[in-house]
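Homework help board

Subject: predicted structure for assignment chain

Our instructor gave us this sequence and asked us to write out the predicted structure in token form, then describe one feature. I got the tokens but I'm not sure how to describe them. Can anyone check?
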Amino acid sequence: MSLPIAISDILHGHTVEWERLEFKESWNPLRVLHTLCAFANDFHNLGGGYVVIGVSEEGGRPVLPPVGLTQKEADQIQKELQNLGHSAIFPAYHPLAAPYVVDGKLVLVLWAPGGRNRAYRAKTSLAKDSTQTAWFIRKNSNTVKAAGADLEELLSLTASVPRRTRARSLATFRAISLSTI
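My token output:
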């Protein structure tokens, strides 16, 4: 599977971290979760973003050769992402993951397109009994909690999508109105 990006252009070009791109040297589930939540919220309607795991950064630029991941680590990350998508981000959200070999090292690229059911919230802690959540957005190359005017704008983006056109995963066949089709 390939993603709608050219990994070589990102890593070997003049790309720096910004609102659509984040480099992570290693797997940090909470930080990645918050970034994925921010990309799903797609605050500036840029189409979501990408998290490249296994590549460190310096000054926002990728450091090559990549640190890389083992095949076992890449597999475990994907399994944990599946679980986090159901248990730590609301509504449920699942990015696409694609492994790439760069300079002989395995890296995992997560593509998090803007979600259809925004506004998304994510847990602020992955501790077993944690229930606190927050809305996250991208501001330049940073993932931040949405607050104040930013939170109001994020929530208004949700309100601008007509309810009848939003995906309803729990809808039954009987709930479909033939007059709206």
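Reply (TA_rk): Your tokens look well-formed. For the description, you could write something like this. Helices lie at 7-12, 29-41, 71-87, 148-159. That's the kind of observation they're looking for.
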